[in-house]
Amino acid sequence: MDKFIIEGGNKLEGEVKIGGFKNAAVAILPACILASGEFKITNLPNIRDIRILCEILRELGADVDFDGSTAIIDTTNIKECVATHEMASKLRASYYLIGAGLARFNYAKASYPGGCEIGRRPIDQHIKGFEALGAKFALDHGLIEVKSDQRLKGTEIYLDVVSVGATINIMMASVMAQGTTIIENAAKEPHVVDLANFLNAMGANIIGAGTDVIKIKGVDELHACEHMVIPDQIEAGTYMIMAAASKGDVLVKNVIPIHLEPVSAKLREMGVEVHEYDDSIRVIGKDELKPVNIKTLVYPGFPTDLQQPMTVLLTRCKGNSMVTETIFENRFGHVNQLNKMGANIRVENRTAVVSGVEKLSGTKLKASDLRAGASLMIAALIAGGKSEIESIYHIERGYENILDKVKGLNGRIEKIRKVAEEV
Ligand code: EPZ
């Protein structure tokens, strides 16, 4: 098991180029199942989740050539969607194979989705959508199976919970249904819009993506297309927070500033200098930071995926800040590790009270999930002394080339292979 060794204390300075959005890409790749032909998908992040999805598409019969940024995917030989390989169980996004397979073949089978352990992560809203369209759902020995004896029928679907995954999955399942499907209380995240744009480029007829009502007029067939994945606003926000926490000066390049509005606004509220340009944002950290309150909400509220990194920054504020996590029920896995470094954070149910401290100190740490791992990296980079972070596979599955990007910003970080313990 590899680990990161980080020597804290450097100001992060320079430029960092943001890659394609993981959470958009993990929906776009399965969506290629919806049509037969050769796709060209560009600006993909070179991370484990993408490589696993390319492998799953190959297992389904596709010809996939991924060079670390562009994927040429020929789906001509995909004749069914049965992705029961153990690989699929590693990803939360494997459930997108179900929506796409159901739409194309009226049948799909995949491993129950995995993903970060930040809550129960049910899929009841996905199932509600599939059944409303006329499909039957079964769960057997950890495998999800959906099927329909006839063409799916468009209908109105009201989501009880604003769910990114369910919105995307139902959009995919309904693109070739007979008639019109209306998704109400839909998620409005930028990657929902990115997927809708991709499906429309394939010949779908979707309007309203980005609002809470999405209308999908079923079409008979879709065709392959080319698509560039939008920049990863969560990766960008992570580096913005890293720059502010280290009191550095970083230009975060290849972003869509409006997607980062909630983060930029909060950083400014704390006293951090944030300059927005066409496709980049400059963050200049300050010595004195004001405590603020963070409440995670669906887009365009403050993103839950940046709650953990932001909590590290709040340890530098003079006074108490409140962090309320409204999306997931168990997303404070990083708090114990931060308190081990000298932070003073108290968690009550879904709220964490963060009292500012003079300094964090480096120690042995262990990443519990993707964004918790990122928050530990930020903490280690600003702490006094050396830290070791284990289980870094959590981090590397979602942050492309993070070792070189942090090194490129003057961060003192090394990656070592963990040798077997001496007996
Ligand atoms: C996506 O997860 C992202 N993952 C998550 O990012 C992100 O935190 C989340 O959206 C919210 O933005 C991917 O896109 C692969 P949800 P998803 O369905 O789709 C409840 C990261 O760090 N819910 O919007 O699973 C659910 O329990 C990851 O990149 C139901 O109750 O999130 C949660 O409380 C972590 N029933 C809330 O809705 C359902 O059927 C939001 O979940 C589905 C969800």
Distance between the termini: 17 Å
* Helix run count: 13
- The CATH architecture of the largest domain can be given as Alpha-beta prism
Helix percentage? 25-40%
Alpha-beta classification: alpha/beta
Rg calculated over all Cα atoms: 22 Å
CATH topology of the largest domain: UDP-n-acetylglucosamine1-carboxyvinyl-transferase, Chain
Shape: globular
Total number of distinct structural domains: 2
Low-confidence stretches: none
| Chemical compounds bound to the protein | ligand EPZ
How would you state the average pLDDT, rounded?
Answer: 95
Give a written overview of the molecule:
There is one protein chain. The chain is 30% helix and 26% strand. With 423 residues, it is an alpha/beta fold. It has two domains: 3-19 and 231-416, Enolpyruvate transferase domain (UDP-n-acetylglucosamine1-carboxyvinyl-transferase, Chain, Alpha-beta prism); 22-228, Enolpyruvate transferase domain (UDP-n-acetylglucosamine1-carboxyvinyl-transferase, Chain, Alpha-beta prism). Strands 22-23-1-24 form a four-stranded mixed sheet, with helices on one face. A four-stranded mixed sheet has the order 2-15-17-16. α1 (22-31) runs parallel beside α3 (95-105). The protein is globular. It starts with a strand and ends in a 6-residue tail after the last strand. 52% of the residues are buried. The mean pLDDT is 95. Bound molecules: ligand EPZ. Residues 23, 26, 92-93, 116, 119-126, 161, 163-166, 187, 304-305, 327-328, 370-371, 398 line the site of ligand EPZ. Ligand EPZ binds next to α1, α4, α5 and α11.
